[in-house]
Amino acid sequence: QVQLVESGGGLVQPGESLRLSCAASGSTNNINYMGWYRQATSKQRDLVATISSGGSVNYADSVKGRFTISRDNANNTLYLQMNSLKLEDTAVYYCKLVRRTAYLGLIDYWGQGTQVTVSS
After folding, report:
1. Chain-wide mean pLDDT for the chain?
2. Any bridge partners for residue 93, and if so which?
3. Nearest to residue 9, comparing CAs of 98, 69, 89?
4. CA-CA distance, 84 to 14, in Å (whole number)?
5. Which SS3 state, helix, strand or coil, does residue 89 take?
6. How far apart, in whole angstroms, are the C-alpha atoms of residue 85 and residue 111?
7. Deepest in the core among 20, 29, 43, 112, taking most CB within 10 A?
8. CB atoms near residue 112 (< 10 Å)
9. Strand, coil or helix: what is 80?
10. Which pLDDT belongs to residue 69?
11. Distance between CA atoms of residues 64 and 54, nearest Å
12. pLDDT single digits (tens) 63-95
């Protein structure tokens, strides 16, 4: 099993920054990729950014140039640096870990989410 705990959300004004953290524990070997997703009220959960085990990154077009995903492998922690925040970035942000297993294939794990509110 894998446990993911997000932190770092909060209330900020447009243009400000936040850094989200996701601490992973448990069976954190054989990670395929990790990522951040977000879900605004009454909307579907969307990809924000992912980082593969090899370090390849992928961003949603809406956050390119403003957000940076990174990973501290030694401490099993995923980060999302969010700069120049906009009103439309308001959402609950979720951490996801995808793990490879020998018999079950890929398994998804999700954190509980952390609220990010951008408001003037």
Report:
1. 95
2. 38, 114
3. 89
4. 7
5. helix
6. 22
7. 20
8. 11
9. strand
10. 98
11. 20
12. 999 999 999 988 899 999 999 999 999 999 999
